[in-house]
Specification:
The chain has helices spanning about 45-50, 95-105, 120-130, 145-160, 175-195, 230-235, 235-245, 260-270; strands at about 5-15, 20-30, 35-40, 60-65, 70, 80-85, 165-170, 200-205, 215-220, 225-230, 245-250, 255-260. By secondary structure, it is of the alpha/beta class. Strand 1 and strand 2 form a beta hairpin. It is globular and about 60 Å long. The mean pLDDT is about 90.
Length: about 270
């Protein structure tokens, strides 16, 4: 594995109720790489994501985050280096877009009591919103936003501390076609503007991958089926093995798509 990797997972095992839900997983993510972690439900990808973003410890194995071994330092020292995005962002109070982004500084869902942002904090929040094209939502209440708008605001929230790692846990959940494509465009633009930022995106669907995806790992039954450069990993053979069903994978204009092999054959014959 690369010695200059930002994230290095070595022989990870997570055991629950006598079963390995993560089974000897090793991955290495370097600066500027845009990873996709793909697999069916129960494949262990979300657990690996939590470990890679410092929110969970494995049963065994080693985790190196930005050159430091997990368990040998205070995890709060690197939390600012990890931006986390999940659509399960359940607010209890009617915050506007700017306030949501500012909670990226405090690391909380809501604005902490008696906390007031500095002028510099507001400048940084607006800059992060501008970077992903949502500065116009600064004064818009969270509950009025569409799911797609919320997703981009949450990316701005994750970026406010200029992290080294951006973690996206199924960010396309609940998005319609337009919102999904807008979010994918945002991720592609971010890849151009922040070329040193490493990212991990978890999904079940390869058609939800941004064109800027550089690497991928396919998982099944807690283990890695294939990992490496996306073009080498996201093949019909590998995807079929991970999902245990004959799948035909196509790659066109920078995007992947998949359908059952039987459906693909029928289309060709027709």
């Amino acid at each position: 594995m690369s010695s200059d990797a930002r994230i290095r997972l070595v022989d990870l095992v997570v055991r629950r109720n006598g079963r390995n839900i993560v089974d000897h997983v090793s991955l290495s993510l370097a600066a500027g790489e845009r990873w996709a972690l793909i697999g069916p439900n129960g494949s262990g990808k979300s657990t690996v994501l939590k470990i890679a973003s410092s929110w969970m410890h494995p049963t065994s194995g080693d985790v190196f985050l930005f050159g430091r071994q997990l368990g040998r330092f205070d995890i709060t020292e690197i939390r600012k280096d990890v931006g986390f995005v999940t659509p399960a962002h359940d607010l209890q109070w009617p915050l506007d877009g700017l306030d949501v982004v500012l909670t990226g500084i405090t690391g909380t869902l809501e604005t902490p009591m008696r906390w007031e942002p500095h002028v510099d904090d507001v400048v940084r929040a607006r800059a992060a919103m501008r970077e992903v094209g949502v500065e116009h939502l600064a004064d818009t209440e969270w509950y009025v936003m569409s799911q797609g708008e919320r997703g981009r605001v949450l990316i701005a929230r994750a970026l406010i501390l200029q992290p080294k790692l951006l973690v996206l846990d199924e960010p396309m959940t609940g998005l319609d076609l337009t919102a999904r494509e807008q979010l994918l465009d945002t991720l592609d633009e971010l890849a151009e503007e922040a070329d040193e930022l490493t990212s991990i995106l978890v999904t079940h669907h390869i058609d939800e991958l941004p064109a800027s995806t550089t690497h991928a790992a396919l998982m099944a039954h807690g283990a890695v089926v294939a990992a490496g450069p996306a073009a080498e990993v996201l093949t019909s053979e590998n995807v079929s093995r991970a999902f245990e069903h004959p799948i035909t994978v196509d790659y066109r204009d920078g995007r992947w798509s998949a359908r059952s092999a039987q459906s693909a054959r029928s289309a060709r014959q027709g």
